[in-house]
Amino acid sequence: MMKLVILATLASTATAFLSPFSTVQQQFRAPATRIFADEAEGDSENAPAPRSAQEISALTSSVKTVFSLEDIAKVLPHRYPFLLVDKVVEYEMGKRAVGIKSVTLNEPHFTGHFPDRPIMPGVLQVEALAQLAGIVCLQMEGAEPGAVFFFAGVDGVKWKKPVVPGDTLVMEVEIKKWNKRFGIATATGRSYVDGEIAVELDEMKFALAK
């Protein structure tokens, strides 16, 4: 009989320790489950409706090609793997241009820059801007398509974000000065990825090879 009393006492004591813990556990667990459920419901309500490939493709339907890659090859002397302008979508003769560079992993510089984190070298981003400016200048008086031109200087370059494979680099250049006698040009330029500035420069100069 004494043994039964002792066992009953131990059982009630254990329950006394377990019950508060169980109560606290329930207090914390139940609301947490509800919170996550609410968040999931909220995310579902606020999530944008899925879009088809056609809808996404149509986002650029108003952007028209002015110079195709074949047209560019008739103006610039550059060729793969150093032709860095895929097409021109805005062009004002002798003034400005907007060009597109589609960045892909199969470009050779990505094998070493960098093997585990491919990033388009900043100098190539500037080179792409110079080539776009060259498309404008090589169609101006005093120059001719296909001519070779050299970098003479660049000032005020600022890189704002990495450019990686899969990005579409949208570039814009404006010709500030053009000396047709000596074949020297001064221009400004900037590039964007997804509407955000990737690189900008205050001034670049280049000269036609003599």
Give a summary of the structure in a few sentences.
The chain has 4 helices and 7 strands. Helices cover 34% and strands 27% of the residues. The protein has 210 residues and is an alpha+beta fold.
Commentary on this structure:
Strands 1, 2, 3, 4, 5, 6 and 7 form a seven-stranded antiparallel sheet that branches. Strand 5 and strand 6 form a beta hairpin. This protein has helices at 2-46, 53-57, 69-73, 122-137, and strands spanning 87-92, 96-102, 149-155, 158-159, 168-179, 184-193, 196-208. The protein contains four helices and seven strands, in the order H-H-H-E-E-H-E-E-E-E-E. The protein has one domain (61-209): Roll (Thiol Ester Dehydrase, Chain A), CATH 3.10.129.10. It is an alpha+beta fold and 210 residues long. The longest helix has 45 residues, at 2-46. Mean pLDDT is 86; it is low at 1-11 and 13-33. Involved in unsaturated fatty acids biosynthesis. Catalyzes the dehydration of short chain beta-hydroxyacyl-ACPs and long chain saturated and unsaturated beta-hydroxyacyl-ACPs. Its EC number is 4.2.1.59.
How confident overall, as mean pLDDT?
A: 86
Tally of contiguous helical segments: 4
Helix fraction, binned, reads: 25-40%
Q: For the record, give the distance between the C-alpha atoms at the N and C termini, rounded to a whole number.
A: 116 Å
Quaternary state of this entry equals: single chain
Which percent band covers the strand fraction?
A: 25-35%
CATH superfamily, please? Hotdog Thioesterase
Total number of beta strands = 7
Radius of gyration: 32 Å
Structural class: alpha+beta
Q: Based on Cα principal axes, name the global outline.
A: globular
Q: CATH class, anyone?
A: Alpha Beta
Q: How many separate domains?
A: 1
At the fold tier of CATH, the topology name is Thiol Ester Dehydrase, Chain A
GO biological process, one term: fatty acid biosynthetic process
Subcellular location: Cytoplasm
Pfam family, one: FabA
Keywords: Cytoplasm, Lipid A biosynthesis, Lipid biosynthesis, Lipid metabolism, Lyase, Signal
